[in-house]
Structure formats: structure tokens, C-alpha cells
Design goal:
single chain, alpha/beta, N-(1-d-carboxylethyl)-l-norvaline Dehydrogenase, domain 2, 5-stranded parallel β-sheet, 4-stranded mixed β-sheet, 12 helices, about 20% strand, globular
Length: about 300
């Protein structure tokens, strides 16, 4: 990362959050609570509905914190992109002047968005990152963080700009790490998220219920192993046994955002979450029957036309 985006500790960091849902609201609330300047970027038609404060209910604390609200991305040090993959293209219209932004940190599910952002805004400006958390927007400005954790991993190239910010989030309760290897960074989330999201959504069960069920638990394990095989072929360092152990240690009542989307008749993020596994599996000649079976089951529950059958 070049010196022109190194962290300036003499001034509070300026952050914009593009996407005011559960993840964006959690991040915005915690950053503002730590003393940073935060602007929530929302759709122009909903601008008047969003309060200039966020109420966060979380294991990290229950508090209100003030934020700015805008329909376009202002001049900031960091733009965090926290929209769902299905909203990604439309959301980028709010970034009318990329030169006002020093660093772009996308927290979307999947992998393909990194290539899109680098092509549009330059590789130097884009800092790949992932977040693992269960959090939900109850209403505009009201966020409930349901998981007892929030794990934020960022590519080490962003250390100069983001070291102070990650320290602040760590003090609040986040688990934050810089990761040197981009394939490992991106695939480490996907090999966990895809099996978790696909099985909970296909079965309409919590994590604990999936793991306890012999049929669904077997599909979950097979999907983890398939995803890890693809990730290794892509150059990532992942361990299926460690992934499965982490899943068994999760709170038993956790539900995936994909599961909630299907319940609310929203389009699930299948292309972002399952798409990279299916596409890379074909490229490397890897069989992924459990993943394919789960995708078809999710498509049926969502009333979507299957592209695999």
C-alpha cells in the first residue's frame, strides 16, 4: 500500500458505509462509538427515513451513536461496501467520485466483486476483506447483533490505512486479523459460509438442528469437504477438519442470512456464495455433488428455476 493512503493518526478517520443493513449498521455503530467520523450511505429514496443515529443491541454493548447520512459517498478515508451481492451493481452508483476515497473495503459475500472493483477503481484503492457475523437490521438505524462474535479479516496490504481502525474495533469486541495471502483470505470465508448458508436454507433449520440431523449433517460435512477441495485447487490454505470443528462449536441457534432472505421472499445470494465453488470446480475437474444438491434444494425453496437440474 502506497504512502498516500497510510494511516493519519492526527485526525479521526472518516468512514462511509455503503449499505445500511445488518453488517453496515453494526460496523457503522461500532466505528462511530469508537470516535470515528461515520457516514451511512443509503438510497436517495430512503434518505429521509434513516435517522442520524444507530441503536445497536449487541454483546459488545447496547448504545445509541450519532452518524451522518447521505445518498452519495463523500470524501472519506475508507469506504466500506456492505450491501448484499444482489444489490452490488446498483449500489455503486452512489460512488460518483472515486477520487474522494482513499481505500475501498468490500465485505460482500463471494469473490467476483474484487475483480469488478479493481477494474473500476484501481487495484491500489481496493482492500479485500471478509466478515463473519450474524447481525440484522430490525428497522432503519436499529441493529441487532445476534452472534457472540464478529470476525473481520483484511488483506495485509491494507495495514497502513486500517491498522488503527482494526485496533479500535478489537477494543470494542471484534476479532480482527490481517491476512497476507488473498486466496486464503477470500476462500476461508467461503468454505465456511457456503455449507452453512446452503444447508440451513435448504433444510430451514438452525446450525444446531442441521448438525444433529444425520441426513443434513452428512450433507453439511460433504459440502465443506467439496468447498475446501476447490479452495485448495485455487491456491488457498484451508483445513476441512478445522472448518467442521468451528461449525460444531457455533451457537446452535444461528441462522444464515440466505435462510432469512428466502423466508422474506428475497433473492438469495446463490451466485455469490455457491457460484465460485461450482464454477471453479468445473474448471479444475472436481466433483461437488453435495453442493449441487443443496443449491437445487435452495432454488426450490426460493421458487427459482434451477440451472443445475
Amino acid at each position: 500500500m502506497s504512502d498516500n493512503i497510510s494511516n493519519n493518526i492526527s485526525k479521526p478517520m472518516r468512514h462511509a458505509i455503503l449499505g445500511a443493513g445488518g453488517v453496515g449498521g453494526l460496523l457503522g455503530a461500532c466505528l462511530a462509538h469508537s470516535g470515528a467520523s461515520v457516514t451511512m450511505v443509503v438510497r436517495r429514496e430512503t434518505l429521509g427515513q434513516y435517522p442520524k443515529q444507530i441503536h445497536l443491541e449487541s454483546a459488545f454493548g447496547n448504545f445509541w451513536t450519532e452518524v451522518a447520512v447521505a445518498a452519495e459517498v463523500p470524501a472519506v478515508d475508507v469506504l466500506w461496501i456492505t450491501v448484499k451481492a444482489t444489490q452490488f451493481d446498483a449500489a455503486l452508483a452512489a460512488l460518483t467520485n472515486p477520487d474522494l476515497v482513499r481505500g475501498i473495503v468490500p465485505l460482500l459475500n463471494g469473490i467476483g466483486h474484487i475483480t469488478v472493483l479493481r477494474a473500476r477503481y484501481g487495484a491500489e484503492r481496493v482492500i479485500p476483506a471478509t466478515i463473519a457475523v450474524e447481525t440484522e437490521r430490525i428497522s432503519p438505524g436499529h441493529i441487532v447483533h445476534r452472534s457472540p462474535f464478529a470476525r473481520l479479516n483484511v488483506l495485509s496490504a491494507g495495514r497502513g490505512l486500517l491498522a488503527g481502525t482494526l485496533d479500535q474495533l478489537s477494543q470494542i469486541g471484534f476479532t480482527c486479523r490481517f491476512i497476507d495471502d488473498e486466496p486464503t483470505l477470500m476462500w476461508s470465508k467461503l468454505v465456511f459460509l457456503a455449507p452453512f448458508a446452503l444447508t440451513t436454507t435448504a433444510a430451514d433449520k438452525t446450525t444446531g438442528e442441521v448438525i444433529a440431523d444425520p441426513t443434513w449433517g452428512k450433507l453439511l460435512e460433504a459440502c465443506v469437504r467439496e468447498a475446501c477441495a476447490v479452495a485448495v485447487a485455487e491456491g488457498a490454505k484451508v483445513d476441512p477438519e478445522a472448518i467442521l470443528a468451528s461449525m460444531r462449536a457455533m451457537p446452535a441457534n444461528m441462522r444464515s442470512s440466505m435462510q432469512k432472505d428466502v423466508e422474506q421472499h428475497k433473492t438469495p445470494e446463490l451466485d455469490a456464495i455457491a457460484g465460485p465453488i461450482l464454477g471453479r470446480a468445473r474448471r479444475h475437474g472436481i466433483e461437488v455433488p453435495a453442493t449441487e444438491k443443496l443449491v437445487v434444494a435452495v432454488e426450490r425453496r426460493a421458487g427459482m428455476e434451477s440451472r443445475l437440474e
